[in-house]
Amino acid sequence: MRLSDCHNFKTFRALAKQRLPDPIFNYIDGAADDEVTYRRNTASYDDVDLVPNVLNDVESVDLSVEVMGQKLDMPFYCAPTALQRLFHHDGERAVAKAATKYGTMFGVSSLATVTVEDIAKLAPGPKMFQFYFHKDRGLNDALLERARAANFNVMALTVDTITGGNRERDLRTGFTSPPKLTPSSLFSFAAHPSWAWNFLTKEKFDMPHLSGHVSEGTNLAVSVGEYFSTMLDQSMNWADAEKLCAQWNGQFALKGIMSVEDAKRAVDIGCTGIMVSNHGGRQLDGARAPFDQLAEIVDAVGDQIDVICEGGVQRGTHVLKALSIGAKAVSGGRYYLYALAAAGEAGVDRALGNLRSEIERDMKLMGKTRIDQLSRDNLRWR
Questions:
Q1: Domain that holds residue 187
Q2: What is the pLDDT of residues 254-285, one digit of tens each?
Q3: Residue 256 domain-assigned (yes or no)
């Protein structure tokens, strides 16, 4: 399979599986426990049908939205994800360039493999920094100040990783950051020489935002679940989130909100956005899908805060369904990570281009020319 064969989410996934060693692929592909929530995140969109209108002059379609003060040329952005140079040696740089080309936002993780300073030089457009609240308060302060100095536009505090989810695929494959060879993984790494060559000969793997503060994940190999469970502060509470919001003093979001009660509290502490998200099904298996939970959260706080639907998006029609319910935008991680693994910047470029074309085509087929014309009148629940 080649990049030219990739026309949708499933084909990018297939090419990523072809290119990556088994532990690396399954880190992207896997989720918690029995992966029920992971599957439900996408299946939930199938429970709602679109009702199109016709004869509405759709020659010109405007896909732009404004989210947390940022003007985006399309209503999808790249959610922050960790460890991207494990998937392709260009990592976050490739995503930054592709997102900038399409005029959309992208997120950079605290556990990124490229610095916010490097990203700022590549991407003049809207940028989000995703914040993990560590036990090390000096590290927390450094993360915030580096993102501020690099002129990131939005700070997003992840709130659903208070401990690591039970990612059994990682346990089976022995996945760690940085990767280490085990008897079970040796053959898979050897069978992917191009990946191994790039990993060993390109820029040394590192998580530079953590360097000088912690050794886990950079010099000391750990699983992501172990990192969350040991390095992040399990005493984090609403007062900590409110203090961080005030420290940032700008566009601030909570990533991982799934209840109306928590959405209302996010408004109360001064947030300007929330990501309705279950961390891609990688934390609490059996949790509800973001799309299933979206309507009641939008109804409760959608007039006070920007609500983003994050998780399970594989098609332009999924984006339109979430926007019709009232999400200001949609975001996703696996959608572009498979493409990154498949072909670096060219892969992410093609994936975002495919999605943009789908959204525009589907808007025309719906009889809509602007995002704000979408509403629940366009939907029917099965």
A1: 3-49+74-353
A2: 999 999 999 999 999 999 999 999 999 999 99
A3: yes
